[in-house]
Amino acid sequence: MAWPKLTASDLETLGRFFLNEDVAKFYTQAEFYRWFSVAASDLAEKAGAVQLVLALETGALVRTVDVSALKVNFVEYVPTTGKPIMLTRIDPLKLGNFPITGTAPQYWYEYGSSIGIEPLPDAVYPIRVYVSDTAKMVLIADADFSSGWSGSGWALGDTAIHTGASSDLTYGTTLTEGSSYTLRLRITGIGTGGTVTPYFGSARGETISSDGYFTQTMTALSGSPSLILTAANDITIEELSLSVEVDYAAAGDQTALEDAWHPLIALFSVIQGLTKNKEAAPVSLLTSMYGAEMAYTKQNIVDIRPDGRDDITYR
Amino acid sequence: MVYTVSVMESLIRSDLNEVSTTRISSAQLQNLMDEGYKHVAALALCVERETYLATTKDHPFVKAPGHAVTYIERVPDSDTVWFEDTADVIWEDTVDVLWEEEISPNDFSNKGLTCISPLAVGYVPIVSSGIPQCWFQWGDLIYIEPTPTDRYILRVFYSDSPTRAMSTMATQYPEDLPSEFHPCIPKYAAAMACIRLKRWADVAKFYNQYISLLQAARIAYIKKHPDARASHVMPDEVANA
Predict the structure, then answer these.
(1) B215: closest chain A residue by CA
(2) Which of A68, A99, A131 is the last residue of a domain?
(3) CA distances from residue B144 to A23, A145, B64, B204 in whole angstroms, order as listed
(4) A169 found inside a domain
(5) Chain A window 217-276: which residues touch B at a Cβ cutoff of 8 Å?
(6) B115, B136 in Cβ contact below 8 A?
(7) Are A119 and A215 in the same domain?
């Protein structure tokens, strides 16, 4: 078995062990894969198991910013100079009724698949959005650029190093049009005027122009779209990971969920299997185990428990 | 007692009264024990590790290791700290080179950073501009407040998964878990095996035993209970005696 994360094959082996059907007969592989997909979604939705920070921008004279995620938890305004600040969550009723100082973002609300910014942005302002997202499938866990990637002006190995005039780094595997992707980059060695902009086909991501970790979620557009990173001047991509919103479909598929959640995916499939076999009492037992473990794991690795002032006071 | 794979298999088979390998093979039990090994680590946060991470200049995020970060200490690294030169004409002076500097502990002392709610970002009173003071974890990133204005070294305390499966080790022993958690593994495996055997009452029994053992060990060995200053003070009745 893979360690510590489990592949679809590992999960099926576990699920079949529990259901005492080591070789497919009453339970098909397709059923197991569907149950794993439902379980991963369930954990993402109920426990907020996938936490991302998206780097976005407001539009000038545009109230809303589209956010592709399950739930927006916090919004942070990142001024060009001065310290970043978390904005206050409001509802649309408060628009124009709350005190406003200056023109920079101060409040936000979530409505549908976008967030609204108050006051109405008079210019483009950078923001960071802290979201809970869907459980996507890992496509690239940690890119090795020496194979499967190409680009003139790039030195490719464990890292991708760009120098000189603007040029593209292209991922050789075609993306699926209409699918939602999450790209995570760690950028180092940004030189003067250094930038990198990801493209998912014709869908353009946000331009990155500083060192650090950056996550962007995008839907790939246009037929046979490619992942292209267009860079200018000095820049190093130290790490790159890519995941896509698809269901379990092959033995090697692995969810981007942290490994602590994987046993619950297997357990969920057992609950579904027993449900199919009309075993109501054990379904009830295992469902309560599943719910309790989800809550416990959420407390351990998702919830934030801030320290109090008393915790650092000698008294 | 040393909880090797073979010892744990004996314990499980004894618990289940299942001596024969016909219904559950040794390989299948070993799989369950490996799953139990990870499960205990995830629920008890008992694989405690430490590492040193560096902040990025003018960027608030550091990649978080393991399952969950529990504490962070700002470290001058034995009274030595690295500074990255900036584009000016004054200092060392090669831009982007890291310079190792001896410093006085008084100038830049160790400090445990405070975990804050994300909502506190921008509202925390900053003692020294640009020097890490607070943090919170979001997914696999640690947010540092205030945004570091240089490269700082952080000592990060975190809980992790075991490094590898017991089945791949020569010792066949859950070496990453503190020994007080070893008895949890066979109880977990027994509970899971009972699902296959459709012994539902035993599933509940062994699972409850597993959680009881795990919680007791977590409270006794993993949860930190700092003493209060007052605990060193003599009670009035004794002091006046």
Answers:
(1) A296
(2) A131
(3) 50, 30, 11, 43
(4) yes
(5) 258-260, 263, 270
(6) yes
(7) no
| Per-domain residue ranges of chain B | 5-46+162-221, 48-159
**B30 and B6 in contact (C-beta within 8 Å)?**
no
Residue A218, strand partner residues:
A181
Rounded to an integer, what distance in angstroms lies between the CA atom of residue B174 and that of residue B235?
44
Contacts of B39 in chain A (CB under 8 A): 263
Nearest C-alpha in A relative to B205? A285
Q: A177 in contact with B at a CB cutoff of 8 Å?
A: no
Same domain assignment for residues A93 and A144: no
Same domain (yes/no): A221, A204: yes
- Among A1, A3, A275, the strongest candidate for a mutation testing the B interface, having the largest count of B CBs within 10 A, is A3
Q: What range defines the domain where residue A182 resides? A: 137-244
* Phi–psi pair at A191, nearest 5 degrees: -95, -175
> Do the bridges between strand A149-150 and strand A88-89 make them parallel or antiparallel, or are there none, so unpaired?
unpaired
Q: Mean pLDDT per 10-residue run, chain A (315 residues)?
A: 92 97 97 98 97 96 95 97 94 96 96 97 97 97 96 95 95 96 95 95 94 95 94 96 97 96 97 98 97 97 90 76
The whole-model pTM stands at: 0.91
